[in-house]
């Protein structure tokens, strides 16, 4: 079952905590880029998790106020702010999950790949600090282009000798969130029941919703498949255009990232039934990185789930073949960038 809410449970358990009625799990989470459009609402949602004991908020500017503000919420976690590279190491020490939404977002007319020149260096530097200070942490990469920034992160971790492919995740949860929402609307289904796996990558045609695998089992006309697939692939651009130059998805992204953090924390806490789609190192196709459903456990990715990719419709099979060259090029671009740094 997919968890849709955070708030009621968090508040209820916090009351218990205050009265010392039950032991609480206590994980440390760091958000790098916490003063940004995604970072702020994401930090707020993570603050509501009963599984978090410490919330470390890092940015190059403006994070003090964000942390002071969020710290007044009477949920269990302690909020600490860290500003600038000199405070990054302390931000990361002892952290279990590091979430990275640092970097520039798209403006109308831009592709995610247009962000490469700025965000590649930001991700390189932040992941390098994670390697030095929190080498065992789960790393969630939100900064775009995710198709390239995850391979960059992998290379940097390899260079530092601490790469554990099971713990490096590209956050593609928003694609699943959007697919679930649009399919439920189109087919008049209860949102809470709908689950559409989204595979491939996280940009344009590399985002491949597997509508034939929708749960509950649902049939679509060819027109519906085309319309829904294109809408899911372009949903980010829909938001970029609506925001008309002021940024890209931040609120739905924060919601999606918070869900992925919560799933990771439940997995760390021993829940044996945690499945999410994520862009990870993979051998499900001939590409070294690929988004698919994965089972997450205490040590990170416990298994890649191959079944979604079996028995694809003709439309999906074609789309899968069509996305591979673009995804491959994005992966190679990331790897080449990271290898140039040594
Ligand atoms: P934003 O510009 O509002 O915030 C970015 C934050 O990163 C700023 O506070 C900035 O100070 C900070 N930052 C810049 N360089 C940094 C550094 N070296 N260390 C730490 N922090 C640094 O941007 P927004 O809207 O929050 O988007 C952030 C990223 O997330 C973008 O790359 C965007 O493309 C990506 N994104 C990813 C999605 C996904 O599905 N994976 C969906 C939506 C956005």
From TrEMBL:
E.C. number(s) listed in UniProt: 1.1.1.37
Swiss-Prot/TrEMBL catalytic activity: (S)-malate + NAD(+) = oxaloacetate + NADH + H(+)
Keyword entries, A-Z: NAD, Oxidoreductase, Tricarboxylic acid cycle
Example GO molecular function: L-malate dehydrogenase (NAD+) activity
BP GO terms, sorted: tricarboxylic acid cycle
Gene Ontology cellular-component annotations: mitochondrion
Keyword Metal-binding: no
Every Lactate/malate dehydrogenase N-terminal domain range: 28-170
Residues covered by the Lactate/malate dehydrogenase C-terminal domain: 173-337
Subunit and interaction comment: Homodimer.
Protein family (similarity comment): Belongs to the LDH/MDH superfamily. MDH type 1 family.
Protein name: malate dehydrogenase
Species: Vicia faba
